[in-house]
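Quick entry between incubations.
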Amino acid sequence: MIAALAFYLFAAILIASAVMVVTARNPVHSVLFLILAFFNAAALFLIAGAEFLAMTLVIVYVGAVAVLFLFVVMMLDIDFARLREGFQRYAPVGAVIGGILFLELLLVVGSWSFADQAEDLRLAPITGDVTNAQALGRVIYTDYVYLFQTAGLILLVAMIGAIVLTHRQRPGTRRQNIAAQVNRSGSVLLEKVPSGAGIATLGIRRPPEPEAEKPKVTHEAGHGHGGHH
Amino acid sequence: MDGFLASPIGILAITVAQTLALLVPVLIAVAYLTLAERKVLAAMQLRRGPNVVGPFGLLQPFADALKMLMKETIIPSGANRVLFILAPMLLFMLAMIAWAVIPVQDGWAIADINVGILYLFAVSSLGVYGIIIAGWASNSKYAFLGALRSAAQMVSYEVSIGFVIVTVLLCVGSLNLSDVVRAQERVWFFIPLFPMFIIFFISALAETNRAPFDLPEGESELVAGFFVEYSSMSFALFFLGEYANMILMSALTTILFLGGWYPPVHVVPFTWIPGFVWFALKIALLLFVFIWVRATFPRYRYDQLMRLGWKVFLPFSLVWLVLTAAVLKLTGWLPA
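Done. Structure below.
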C-alpha cells in the first residue's frame, strides 16, 4: 500500500518536473528541474528494489553530469527573447516530427511480444542470496567482461579525442614546474623557533622605540634597517 | 506494545526517536566544534581564544547562535528569492541526512542498507548544489566566482575519493558500512592502505572546502566567496553545514580506515569502553587534524589545487587501486 502510494507520488513528481524542464523560462530552473527528475527516477529504482542503480543514478547523473550542465548553463549568458524567436514559424514542423516519432513508438510497442518467462524474471530479477551490486557485478564483470572493456575503451577514445580537439598549444606560455621549484635550494630558510620564546631571544628585534633609538643612531645606521614605525 | 512497534506508525516513531538520538549529539558536536576550532587555533597561535562567555568560553557557541538569530535577514534585490533561501537549507539538510547510514556501533545504524557507502558518496557529491545555487541565486560576482571554484574543486576531488573508496571496498567485498568496519576487526585499513588514507584525508579537506583548499571562500580575493550575500540564520546554516560536513567526512574516514567502533587492541581496559565512544574519539582526533592543518598550511593557488587533484591524486589512486587488486588476487586474500 505504502509502496504503491510512494510510487504514484514519485512518478507524478517525475513527470511534472520533466514537463517543467521543457517549459521553464529560465534555463537554470530547467536544469534544476532535471535534477529533481533524476532524483525521482532514483526513488522509483529504489521502490523496484534496485538500490545499486538508484545510487549510481544519483552519483553519476546528479553528482557529476548535472553539475557540469548547471555550470555551463549558469556561465552562458542566454538571451531568452532570441531563443523564443520564430517559435510559431517552426511549431508545425516540430509538431509533424513529434507526431511521426510518436507513431513509430506506438508501432514498435504495439508489436512487442513478451517472452513466456518475462513475467517471472521481472518479478524475481535476482536470486535472493546475492545483493543487487553483486548480481550486477556478475553480469557486467563476469559474463560480459569483454564487451564492458570495449565500451570503456570507446569512451576513453572519445575522451582523448575531445581533449585533442580542444587543446591549444600557445607559444610563450610559461608553465610552472613544481618539482624544480620544490627542489630549489637556498631560496627559503626554515628556522625552528622554540614556542613561547618570544622574538627577543632569537635576536630578531622590533624597530627600537624613538627615545631609545636616539643614542644608537650611529651604531645602527650601518645595518641599513629601515621602517621605524 | 510489540504490535504497536511493528505497525507503520510504530516504525515511524522508532525511526524518529533514533534520528533524534543521533542528530542531537551531532548538532551539539557541531556547536562545540566551532568553539574547539577557535580554542585550538588560539592555542597554536599562542592566544587564549574565546574565554569570556561561560567557564572557558563554553557558552560561546550559544551566544553566537543567539547573535545570528537576532540579525536581520537580508535578501539582495537582484537575487532569485526562492533559490536564495533554498540553498543553505539544502546544504544543511544534506549534511544531516548522510548520518542515516553511519554505523556508530555494531548494529547502531539507523538504516543499515546494502549500498551504504554509495549513499554517502552520493550525498557528499550533492553538497556542491547548495554552493552553486547559493552563488548563482545571490546575483553577485564574488558569490558566483566562489561557487564556480567550488563546483570545479568538489567534482575534481570526488574522482580520487571514488577510487579510494573502491580500493577499500576491494578489501571488504561489501558496500555495507557495517561490513566495512567488521572487516577491520584485526587490522585497521590505514595500515595496509596508508597512502590511500592520506589521499582520502586530503581529498576530504578539499571536499569540505577547508583550509588549505578553502578557495571557494578565499576572503582575500572573493570577500567571503559563495555566501558573501548571506546574513543571519541563512548564513548560520552554511556555517553549521560546513562543520557538520567536517564531522561527517571524519566519520567516513573513521569507518573506512580507522576501524569504526573497534578499540585499537582487543585487550581488557580498551574493550570496556563502549564502541560509540571509540568512534567519537577517532572522529575527534581527525577533527583536530582538520584544525591543525588549517593553522599550519597557507592556502593553495587555484591552478595548483587542480593540478594536485587531477595530475597527482587521480593517477596515484588509480595505480594503487590496480596494485591492490593485483595483490589481493595473487595472494588469494580477495574476499568472497
